[in-house]
Amino acid sequence: MLEKQVNKVFLGIGSNLGNKKHNIEIAKYFLNQNDYFEIIKVSNYYITKSWPDPKKPSFVNIVLEGETYLKPIDLLHYVKNIEKILGRKVRKKNSPRECDIDILDFDQKCLKIKDNKISMITPHPRLHNRNFVLIPLFEISKNWKHPKSNIKISQLIKQIDTSHLRSITVD
């Protein structure tokens, strides 16, 4: 379950059902409730239209940097459990959800892991196309490079549309 070394990870957390900001705050609370995961930095909140159907509720998103002693598969199980605690149910792909936690980057490693019905790929396969990931990631880690392509985050941002992304403050 635990690795001997600490791993730097970046997580994306989003919600578009219920009290969105509260859901994200609860997810952060659960992440920090043990000795094997520590939140280091957290971005501002960002609001984006739902994709692929912008008529569905908008998303509130953050990106956080953390340190963990967990192995990648154990971190995946841990975040999936937090999603369940927050009320996430199995639904059709891209349906609204109470909480979505994505492992964006696990210690700059390119990984492909499958365990029972869950799987993960790092870096997240669509990370480089998502303004709601790249902008908050840049906010907390200006020198981050894509683990697979080795492209700087500042270059990745230049290739995406950021016109519909809005930073918001917590009420």
What distinguishing features does this structure have?
single chain, 171 residues, alpha+beta, Alpha-Beta Plaits, 6-stranded antiparallel β-sheet, two-stranded antiparallel ribbon, 4 helices, 8 strands, 25% helix, globular
Can you tell me about this structure?
It is built from four helices and eight strands, in the order E-H-E-E-E-H-E-E-E-H-H-E. It has a single domain (about 1-170), classed as Alpha-Beta Plaits (2-Layer Sandwich). Strand 6 (about 110-115) and strand 7 (about 120) form a beta hairpin. The termini are far apart. It has helices at about 20-30, 70-85, 130-140, 155-160, and strands spanning about 1-15, 35-40, 45-50, 60-70, 100-105, 110-115, 120, 165-170. Strands 1, 2, 3, 4, 5 and 8 form a six-stranded antiparallel beta sheet that branches. The protein has a two-stranded antiparallel sheet with strand order 6-7. The protein is an alpha+beta fold.
Q: What coarse outline follows from CA principal-axis ratios? A: globular
Succession of helices and strands: EHEEEHEEEHHE
Beginning-to-end CA distance, first to last residue: 37 Å
**Beta-strand segment tally:** 8
Q: Please tally the helical runs, counting DSSP H or I stretches of 4 or more residues.
A: 4
Helix content: 10-25%
